[in-house]
Specification:
This protein has a 5-stranded antiparallel sheet with strand order 7-6-16-15-14, sandwiched between helices. It has a 5-stranded mixed sheet with strand order 22-28-27-24-25, with no helix packed on it. A 3-stranded mixed sheet has the order 2-1-5, covered by helices on one side. It is elongated, with a radius of gyration of 40 Å. It has 22 helices and 28 strands. About 35% of the residues lie in helices and about 20% in strands. It has 5 domains: about 30 residues; about 200 residues, Orthogonal Bundle (Penicillin binding protein transpeptidase fold); about 250 residues, DD-peptidase/beta-lactamase superfamily (Beta-lactamase, 3-Layer(aba) Sandwich), CATH 3.40.710; about 30 residues, no CATH class; about 90 residues, Immunoglobulins (Immunoglobulin-like). It holds the Pfam family Transpeptidase. Its EC number is 2.4.99.28. Keywords: Carboxypeptidase, Glycosyltransferase, Hydrolase, Membrane, Multifunctional enzyme, Protease, Transferase, Transmembrane, Transmembrane helix.
């Protein structure tokens, strides 16, 4: 009797506890996601269009959930097929459950499920064998889902994770895999097909007959017609639609970028980039077009990067023309590959030198045979100009003036600037790079170079590029060049001659100015073209990823045309065609019209130019000097002799002998310098004579002829007066004399040699030369 009473108490206690447990279970919010995060990583353009999709770890195509709204056609079809009373019930449809139970009892087996959409979510989130106990679990979970989620959220949750056959999960994935379109563009027939598939996903597999799937779809369409959901016309058109008979492959418009982003964020399923869909696709097409054009010339690779100049948002990213071109390293990401810089660093050296007060665009820079302890730079055309303006030197990309300018500015200072501006590939110290740094002695990434050129366009404020939306606010920036210097450099770069028909760009009203620079690495392995306008910064690289050199590879000829094709396809902003400058960034300065340096009283023609406000003092012109001449104008004189021959003060243009030599070779008239009055007691020789080859302390290798004899070396000297004889001495032995074009062949001994030249007036110059015998 007591045992019977205890059992009744236990049952009564359990009867009160069980509802409490169930209520507590229903009230507690969900502590973790209902579905495992096993989604496909999707990479999208700024407008939401797909750029690349990765299959997930389970070999499934499975779009991650997003915030888009379920399209009305699909929502209507799904509710009509799966859960007619979806908006009326509270997670379960009691009438449908009772009906299903009665049908199952009558048949002695489960023939009807009566599952609502929340119940199907419960089953999909934790699949189990179909039993009454598991059905009760699904009912409880469905009620809980209905308590904690809105109807629209539940519908979205179901469709995002519903199986659609094969390895396709989710309605948005299915819309792309079966119809090649976004779900918002589905027709009534397509929506009905996707509504019935989760109920029997195996029917999507291509078979000889698609009748079961068609019949199921058509029954749903008829049901929606009968309920007045769709019109008779829409019903008839939907019946005519074909069923999907294959899986459509996802197109990849940015495979290198997608792989880079996925590697950097392996747990981030949705990667919303800053890429512009139209610009990206056009750049991919251009890359493929030029790959075919250049293939016959054995140029197999190229890369393109386009960024928003102001913000650094990347608008187009092409790592190579064909990701699947295994023969030519198509999977190499050229945007992030380190390649020789060629000449593309030169604009920054010129801008920094302006700030330092070394030059202005109008200033003379020397273009002469130059030797720096084993390094002797050469211009691409193997010629010497004597002197050129900094503007002409940069526009023509002359190497010797750039090296001399770097030597004057300082390798370490320029190296430090590159590091601060964001060049990430400088793994050696400044001394190890040395002066060749400015000619391509260091490798750089296209990513970094776009960053640097954007900084030049943003008044010297350098900040990083970015690829994902929302990253801009985290980018640090620093001003490393003054506003005025940047503007002057951009003006110089605007004058570079364009390739092909672009040469006459100023004659066309739809053309626009661009500041751009080309670069070709030593051995013709890399061709660069980088341009910047107020809206965009464009970078192009051409070459071969295997590092193979090719004489056909050239910055202006190979990369330049691609850059201008990209420029022409970018949208035009008519109200912002060039960079704006502010008067407050400049100050007036009197400049010698000849040399481009700060004018002195000796300069005959002076221009007033506006120079950067923040630049250091510019050096004075030394090409014009005051000198005293005799009354008859035949000799120069000084205070020791002008009482005897009279005096007249005049301004003269003075070129160093080596500069005068090369200017004369180019056809420029250089007046002969007047010699000092020979009877003057204070007379001394003047610096009118100079050895121009070999360079000071040069080291030469001397090959032998076939007969074993040492080959001779042709030495050169320059004199301000072409009518003066020059006498040559090697190791204190007289070799001979020259007049006019002063060249002399001589045989050097092994080791150090001493070369000396003297003119008939006593002016002299000397050099030490180290010669090493070299066997053929």
């Amino acid at each position: 009797m007591l045992s019977h009473i205890n059992k009744r108490k236990v049952l009564r206690w359990l009867g009160g506890l069980l509802p409490t447990i169930v209520c507590f279970y229903l009230i507690i919010p969900f502590s973790k996601p209902l579905f495992k995060e096993e989604y496909s990583t999707t990479v999208k353009a700024s407008n939401g269009s797909l750029l690349h999709v990765f299959i997930n770890a389970n070999e499934q195509w499975y779009f991650p959930p997003d915030t888009t709204v379920v399209p009305n056609k699909l929502k209507t079809a799904v509710i009509a097929f799966e859960d007619e009373h979806f908006y009326q019930h509270w997670g379960i449809d009691v009438r449908a459950i009772l009906r299903a139970m009665w049908q199952n009892i009558q048949n002695g087996q489960i023939v009807s499920g009566a599952s609502t959409i929340p119940m199907q979510i419960a089953r999909m989130s934790a699949p189990k064998k179909r039993t009454y106990i598991n059905k009760f679990r699904e009912i409880c979970l469905a009620i809980k889902l209905d308590l904690h989620y809105s109807k629209e959220q539940l519908l979205k949750l179901y469709l995002d994770h519903a199986p659609y056959g094969g390895n396709v999960i989710g309605y948005r994935t299915a819309a792309f895999k079966f119809y090649g379109k976004d779900a918002s563009l589905l027709t009534w027939g397509e929506a009905a097909t996707l509504a019935v598939l989760p109920n029997a996903p195996g029917m999507i597999y291509p078979k000889d007959s698609s009748a079961p799937l068609r019949n199921k779809r058509n029954r749903l369409l008829k049901k929606m017609l009968d309920k007045g959901v769709i019109s008779d016309q829409n019903y008839r058109l939907a019946l005519l639609e074909d069923l999907p008979d294959r899986f459509i492959s996802f197109e990849s418009h940015a495979p290198h970028l997608a792989r880079r982003l996925k590697s950097a964020s392996p747990q981030q399923w949705l990667l919303q980039t800053t890429l512009d869909e139209t610009t990206q696709k056009r750049c991919v097409q251009l890359a493929g077009k030029y790959r075919k054009i250049y293939a016959p010339y054995d140029i197999n690779n190229l890369s393109i990067l386009v960024a928003d100049t102001k913000t650094g948002a990347i608008k187009a990213y092409v790592g190579s023309p064909d990701f699947f071109d295994a023969q030519h390293g198509g999977q190499v990401d050229g945007v992030m590959a380190a390649r020789s810089s060629g000449s593309i660093l030169k604009p920054f050296l010129y801008a920094l030198s302006i700030d330092e007060g070394i030059i202005l665009p109008q200033s003379y820079v020397r273009d002469l045979p130059t030797y720096f302890d084993g390094f002797s730079p050469r211009n691409a055309n193997r010629e010497f100009q004597g002197v050129v303006t900094a503007h002409e030197s940069l526009v023509r990309s002359l190497n010797i003036p750039a090296v001399r300018l770097l030597n004057y500015y300082g390798v370490y200072q320029f190296y430090s600037f590159l590091k601060l501006a964001g060049t990430s590939t400088l793994f050696r110290n400044a001394d190890e790079y040395g002066l060749p740094l400015i000619l391509g002695g260091a490798e750089v990434k296209m990513w970094d170079m776009v960053k640097l050129y954007r900084g030049l366009a943003n008044n010297g404020v350098f900040s990083d590029n970015y690829l994902l939306q929302g990253q801009q606010g985290s980018q640090a920036s620093a001003q490393l060049i003054s506003n005025g210097s940047c503007q002057l450099t951009l003006e110089m770069l605007k004058d570079l001659k364009r390739p092909g028909s672009e040469y006459f760009w100023e004659r066309f009203s739809n053309s626009r100015p661009i500041a751009w620079k080309t670069g070709t690495s030593y051995g013709h392995k890399d061709a660069w073209a980088i341009g910047v306008i107020p809206e965009y910064t464009i970078a192009v690289w051409c070459g071969n990823f295997n590092g193979e050199g090719n004489k056909n590879i050239s910055g202006a000829v190979t990369a330049g045309p691609i850059l201008f094709d990209i420029l022409q396809m970018l949208p035009v902003n008519s109200g912002n065609s060039w960079f704006e400058s502010a008067d407050m960034d400049y100050k007036p300065m009197s400049i010698c019209s000849l040399s481009g340096f700060r004018a002195t009283d000796a300069c005959p023609v002076v221009d007033t130019l506006f120079v950067p406000e923040e630049m250091k003092p510019l050096r004075s012109c030394d090409y014009h000097q005051f000198k005293y001449f005799s009354a008859n104008g035949q000799h120069q004189c000084c205070s020791k002799c002008w009482n005897d021959i009279g005096r007249e003060k005049k301004t003269v243009t003075v070129y160093q002998p080596d500069i005068a030599f090369y200017l004369r070779k180019k056809g420029q008239y250089i007046a002969r310098a007047k010699s000092h009055y020979p009877k003057c007691k204070a007379y001394t020789t003047q610096n009118t004579l100079k050895i121009i080859y070999p360079n000071p302390n040069a080291k030469l290798f001397l090959p032998r002829d076939f007969d074993g004899q040492l080959q001779s070396v042709v030495c050169k000297a320059a004199h301000q007066d072409e009518n003066i004889k020059i006498y040559w001495y090697l190791n204190e032995q007289y070799i001979g004399h020259t007049l006019g074009e002063n060249k002399m062949e001589m045989i050097l001994k092994n080791g150090w040699n001493h070369l000396k030249v003297i003119d008939e007036n006593g002016s002299s110059d000397a050099q030490r030369i180290f010669a090493t015998l070299k066997d053929n």
